[in-house]
Amino acid sequence: METKPRHRKSLFWPLLLIALGVALFVNNTHLAGDTFWETLLRLWPLLLIVGGLDSIFRREGFVGPVLFIGLGVVILMGNFGRPVVENWGALLRLWPVLLIAWGLDLLVGQRSFWSLIAGLGLGVALLAGVLWLTASSTTIGASSLKGETIEQTLNGATSAEVTLNIPTGLLEVRDGANSGQLVSGSARIAKSETLAQEYTVTGKRGKYSLGSQGFFYTTPFYWGEVAAGWQLQLNSQLPLELTSKMAVGEQRLWLTRLNLQTLEAQTVIGRTIVALPQKTIALINLSTVIGEVVVYVPSGANVQIETDTALTVVRVAPGFQRQGNFISTSPGVSAAHYIRVENVIGVIRVLPMP
After folding, report:
1. What pLDDT score does 221 carry?
2. DSSP result, 274-312
3. Cα separation values, 266 from 61, 122, 150, Å
4. Domain edges within the chain
5. Are 64 and 27 in contact (CB under 8 A)?
6. Which helix (H) or strand (E) holds 48?
């Protein structure tokens, strides 16, 4: 009588639930330090690694799982500042390799011990080939970044609305543009990208938008020398309304000396750092789905912060008062910033200006 091979149950979901339970337990009991959630967010490639190991355990194939495990290790090392791959654009263009791995798994199968060895060998060879092709700038084009200069004169505007749509990378915004300019700075973007700028003046009010078009790439939670970067200086004399949107990356908004009226900063995955203006009153909305939000409060400013959170750790420095979802400084200062911070998964920090 022929017996059917026993189907092994998946380990992926049980391990994921255990890891999630441990993370929530550490969060609720405050056992970890301030860097707990930052480190946890960097560990997301472990999902690729555990998923690959689970597929091998269940004998669903070997070529594809080995490829996923290898890519998980490569991205994980990049997230912790040790990038194995610099040409992420080329790596993303090689996605059809996943179809090749799937086809090889179907072809090799799991008929015998030798098919296991062949599958593992093919998986390692395929991973090595992907990394070699990624490193070869002559094989795949658009393998590096290019520099762009950004300048926009006021053209008679006495106030302005600035909108930044940055897909990925590192964005730094601060004061520093000269009296005749609204914005100046530079950008390091992929060769396959082009700058997208538009500026109009209506009734002495300027409206400026900046972003990029084309293929872009990044590795989440690591923005080193190989990452796309935007360095922008704004006019500190004009009343400004600033909107900044980013998909994956880090926003560093040093607004201390700007005449800021409103700020809308959105980051889907990554980090948002905001240093509040020292003098002007500002209405500020910060939104992050997965990541970290850091708010630096200048000395003597009266600030009220409303938090809207889910799986989020809120860290408040000594000297701030926290009641429920509201964080504030001591009363007595006439000027006030009202800030609303939305963070689904991650950490919110409120700190004094360094």
Report:
1. 46
2. EE--SSS--EEEEEEEEEEEEEEE-TT-EEEEEEEEEEE
3. 40, 43, 22
4. 12-135, 145-352
5. no
6. helix 46-57
3-class DSSP state for residue 202?
Answer: strand
The pLDDT assigned to 319 comes to: 84
Q: Which residues pair with 44 in a beta bridge?
A: none
- Whether 288 and 344 have beta carbons less than 8 Å apart is answered as yes
> Are 112 and 59 a contacting pair, CB within 8 Å?
no
63-79 helix and 113-135 helix, angle to the nearest 10 degrees: 40
Q: Say how far apart CA 216 and CA 146 lie, in whole Å.
A: 12
At 322, give phi and psi (nearest 5°): -125, 125
The answer to whether 72 and 219 are in contact (CB under 8 A) is no
The pLDDT tens digits for 36-80 are: 666 666 777 788 888 877 777 776 667 777 778 887 887 777 777
C-alpha 307: how far from chain center: 20
pLDDT of residue 180: 93
Pairing of strands 229-234, 302-316: unpaired
Residue 310's pLDDT is 83
Rama region for 240: left / alpha / beta (φ>0; ψ in -120 to 50; rest): beta
Q: What's the pLDDT at 90?
A: 57
Measured CA to CA, the distance from residue 116 to residue 266 in angstroms comes to: 47
- The whole-angstrom separation of Cα 252 and Cα 185 is 14
Place of tokens 């000395």: 299
Q: Is 39 helix (H, G, I), strand (E, B) or coil?
A: helix
The set of residues, in sequence order, having a beta carbon less than 8 Å from that of 237 and lying 6+ positions away, is: 179, 259
Residues in the chain where the model's pLDDT stays below 70: 1-11, 23-24, 26-41, 59-61, 81-95, 97-98, 100-102, 104-124, 126-127, 129-144, 215-228, 280, 330-336
Q: How many CB atoms lie within 10 A of CB 138?
A: 6
As a whole number of angstroms, the distance between CA 273 and CA 292 comes to 8
- Output the pLDDT for position 141: 42
What's the pLDDT score for residue 210? 96
CA distances, 216 to each of 132, 186, 341 (Å):
21, 17, 28
